[in-house]
Amino acid sequence: MITVRRSGASDAPALVALAEQVAREGGGWILTTDSWRSVGEERRYLRAARRHPDACVLVAEVDGQVVARLSLARDPHPASRHVADLGVMVAEHHRHQGIGTRLLEEAVEWARSAGISKLELHVFPWNEPALRLYESFGFEREGYRKEHYARDGGYIDAILMAYRVT
Ligand SMILES: CC(C)(COP(=O)(O)OP(=O)(O)OC[C@H]1O[C@@H](n2cnc3c(N)ncnc32)[C@H](O)[C@@H]1OP(=O)(O)O)[C@@H](O)C(=O)NCCC(=O)NCCS
Description:
Layout: E1 2-6, H1 12-24, H2 39-51, E2 55-62, E3 65-74, E4 83-90, H3 99-113, E5 118-123, H4 128-137, E6 140-151, E7 154-164
Parallel strand pairs: 4-5
Antiparallel strand pairs: 1-2, 2-3, 3-4, 5-7, 6-7
Helix pairs in contact: 1-2
The protein binds coenzyme A.
């Protein structure tokens, strides 16, 4: 059974392990390949996110084990406070079970309650599973960012996507 909840500082070890696993997969799914936060840094980040009204970290558990995370952060600029940036990852052996979709549904609930009307994210052009998830959920492609992220001594492109929270 899948449960989704707000994360707390005690999730730090599980979330660092999850990020490291996904980074090691070799698909280049996420921006970080070798420099995720340490457990201590993650704990501080989660504590701060829990207290901050403009941030939210959700985790999904299966049989009491954390298998996925979704992070949201409101844009700090006064003219774009209605926008929040989103990132999501699901452990390899728990994909295609609707967990990513469940997390997005909860993210939309949080955004609505925080007065956020637009969610945005960047996705690498080769990340087909993520593109399918976002498009089937209702995200639209808003742009193509050329050489937007630094990686392996060069720069890589990203697709900008957004979802209207109604
Ligand atoms: C992208 C990612 C988050 C998707 O998570 P997920 O939990 O697999 O997503 P869902 O299960 O909700 O949906 C994904 C697909 O599984 C399908 N699915 C959902 N439930 C299913 C089920 N019970 N059986 C089979 N397929 C199912 C969905 O229909 C969707 O299929 P489609 O891709 O053919 O449209 C996950 O692949 C991941 O973490 N990848 C690595 C990190 C990453 O890329 N993060 C995003 C960075 S931008």
